[in-house]
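FW: tagging you since you asked about this chain on Friday. Here's the raw sequence from the shared folder, copied in full. Didn't touch anything.
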Amino acid sequence: MRLVIIGGSGFLGGELIRQAVAAERGPAAPGREAREAAAPDREVREVREVVATYATRPGDAPADRWYRLDLRDAGQPDGVDAVDRLIADLAPCTLVNASSGHADWAVTADGAIRVAAAAARHGCRLVHVSTDAVFSGDRPDYDETCLPDPITPYGAAKAAAETAVRLLVPDSVIARTSLIIGDGGSVHERHVHDLATGRRTGVLFTDVVRCPVHVTDLAAALLELADSRATGIHHLAGPDAVTRHELGVLIAHRDGLDPTRLPAGHHADSPRPGPLTLRLNGTTTQSRLRTRLRGAREFLEAR
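HL: got it, structure written out here
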């Protein structure tokens, strides 16, 4: 059985590869206990090969094989698109779609639909990574039963992808997450560093609330779900709801930066649309996982 990581060259994709490869090499590897623990709803699958795709260039993570894949490739002269052709060659497999095309509909929506269609056609298990941006922010919080009501192009593309995945692959997993943080490598952390050191201008919003998750926790949870019999919507976010500015201050303290150099502002004053408070309630999902999703105040504790 193969584990195929779509978007393996990305921040989350790289961590998925590292944990999956490490789990195959030894019982002490990160995520091994969570993936192999016996539980009623689990079906541990032997992953013999970890395969990853990239859009521009392969990542640094140690996948067994890398393939270039453009999710926008709608077809060859024979009518078979690039996604279907690749999955046909790799099936049977478990697919984790961790690709990110941001607001590019051709990648984020149409590309995800091609992945789902190929998974259905070739009998592959599918874990699709979605986002809290499928919601408007009009509710106090959002659990797994809440229906998407996006107000941004990115959220709309992700919501369309979710609909297609649920229709085409009813036994798939759709995992919604929030801001993904690491140990310095995420775009959010780099942004904070640039602001604190004066390399760029801008503000961190004090009225935009999210539930950040650490990339290692998220990857372990996704692999646990991939190896289980779970289906449907799952929320994988940290338990701490913090503003963008609070998150920046936590990152600055951890990394020895001066948090007073982080400019504050209000998204409500910005002409750009977007939800303000998005609290993903993942209580139900967390109760079914062995992987513990830490809150930002814990994983960003000053060293």
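FW: Confidence is low (pLDDT under 50) at residues 28-40.
HL: agreed, and The CA atoms of residues 13 and 272 lie 29 Å apart.
FW: great, closing this out.
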